[in-house]
Amino acid sequence: MEARTLELVFPEHTNPMGAAFGGFVLGLMDKVGSYAAARRARKPVVTVAVSSVEFKVPIRTGDLLEVVARVVRMGTLNST
């Protein structure tokens, strides 16, 4: 199962150096990931953990981001 979106980076999404805030990018990743997961699970889902994220190049004002999420594993969280 896959979900994708395109997002234009505006000045309010960037720091004074013109690079996108990491939290903005992480938020997009979480949102699109939840779309893919909810489609696969056919019910509400939550993000339990993120192992790691490494930004290798800056994302600049005016850049168009394509965020693609793919479900690679499913599990359940047992609430006690």
Q: What's the CATH topology label?
A: Thiol Ester Dehydrase, Chain A
**H/E topology pattern:** EHE
> Numbering strands along the chain, what is their spatial order in the largest sheet?
1-2
Beta-strand segment tally = 2
In words, what does this structure look like?
By secondary structure, the protein is of the alpha+beta class. It has a single domain (2-70), classed as Hotdog Thioesterase (Thiol Ester Dehydrase, Chain A), CATH 3.10.129.10. The chain contains one helix and two strands, in the order E-H-E. It has one helix at residues 22-41; strands at residues 2-8, 64-70. The radius of gyration is 15 Å and the shape is elongated.
List descriptors.
80 residues, alpha+beta, Thiol Ester Dehydrase, Chain A, two-stranded antiparallel sheet
In short:
With 80 residues, the chain is of the alpha+beta class. The protein contains 1 helix and 2 strands. The chain has one helix spanning 22-41; strands at 2-8, 64-70.
